[in-house]
Specification:
heterodimer, A: mainly alpha, B: alpha/beta, Rossmann fold, three-stranded antiparallel sheet, 40% helix, 26% strand
Amino acid sequence: MVQPSEVIVDRPLTTRSKRGQLSSALGDFGAGLARANTWWTLALHDVRARYRRTVLGPFWIVLSNSIGLIGMGVVWSTLFGMNFTDTFPYMSAGFVLWMFIQAIILDSCSVFSSGHAVAIQRNMSIPKSFHVLRMVTRNGILFLHSIIIFVFAAWYCHVALSPWIWWAIPGLIAILLNGVWLGLFLGSISVRFRDIEPLVGSVLTVLFFLTPIVWRVEMLADRAYYAHVNPFTHFIAIVRDPLLGSPPSLTSWAVVGIVTALGFALCLPVFAKARSRLAFWI
Amino acid sequence: MSILWLSNVSLLYPVLGADARSLRAAIMRQLGIGGVIRQKLGSVTQVQALDGVSLEIRAGERVGLLGMNGAGKSTLLKVLASLYEPTSGEVMIDGDVTTLFDLTLGMDFEATGYENIRLASLFRRGNKRNLDVFTERVETFCELGEYLALPVRAYSSGMVMRLGFSIATSINPEILLIDEVLGVGDREFVQKAQAHLASVMETSKIMVLATHSEAIVRDFCNRVVMLDHGKVAFDGSVDEGIQFYHGVARREAAAA
């Protein structure tokens, strides 16, 4: 016998005070960070699960991407009359970094609504930020596989090692850090508005062409301005420049710093508002 | 000291239709274009799932939660498990909570049974030494044998239930919350589960069990709480509770 509860229509959502929400969100984040052991293990588990029943395992990313890259490297250097040994390492680094950034953004959209995250949220009281930290860590681990493509390209094309290469590490950490606010932000709004995920997917496709990944900013000549206002240019530059032996640009780091700060400032109120309602939306 | 304490807890459950979830609808609502009737932004259909519930459950109590479908039993359990935050009122939960709510049980269906046992232990902050004991207990109790090495998605729902039940009850939970899942297993397993549950309940301090089965309440509970339209309609002894439940069920049937 089904007993209909009282249905209240058109009543504004009753929410707790803004300050209360914000402190709960920060508490959630702290509790999420404290479970490092759990999200680290689950991230490793995800990586293993992804390649179960395959022979090459995680090196499938390496193989499939390198085939595409070698093809593009040959075509591109011929089309633009460039030196293959100059172009190939540049493209590989850019492409691998783009795949990394793209995966973080796409996974951010489904961070609370993917199968296992839903199962966890319906059965266990685990901090919401846990899911984001797991997703970011997983992508970090996958990146460590795909970077092998660049190592191979650098070896094949004799890229000189320079001490600047160490700057790639803070660059990668900056990308991961941005993954945290992206996950909290995109994750929260995508659960509420189901259009966000396909929207983000199509924007990313366009961004691949608009960002200097396989082409160079200098090729734009007097239109280089357009590449510089694109934050993705800078996120790629802070890692790629050191990998190729040049010092990282101060401008790029400044842009990354500003985007990171703005991102966290943007994600906090959104996550704070959505956090307690995620359980109803999933 | 384990305790569950609710004071005047109300919960409005937002129901998002396809319309409310779409970004276009949200923008349209605000702009009022395309002949869409402008509504007050942020207004969503809501269901009053809990209405001023106050409860205090102390160590040693095994509460049978009764009520018609839609009376708020599952919602109340989810509030007790901290999965839902109430819209108003206060909640205090002291003790480790283990839930047995649905067949997903927080498991990763792509992972094997053994992996899920390991993950479950991890989520409950188990350490390496505990894990071996824990795995062994789950193994012997669920009797899934070699299936434990297969991904859970290959299991039948009865097998998933066996694994989930074994995981949930092999950790000596302080507070155990159960939402009628016992019905899925085959009869032999249900009998075994009930015997096992009886022993788990000796060690767990608090249990709250939502069910429609009078027999289960009589076998396992020492207190009955009955919900009606999200309110506590009865709170007291098992015998009186079951009588009250029958009374309400008869009136509902007569009214229908």
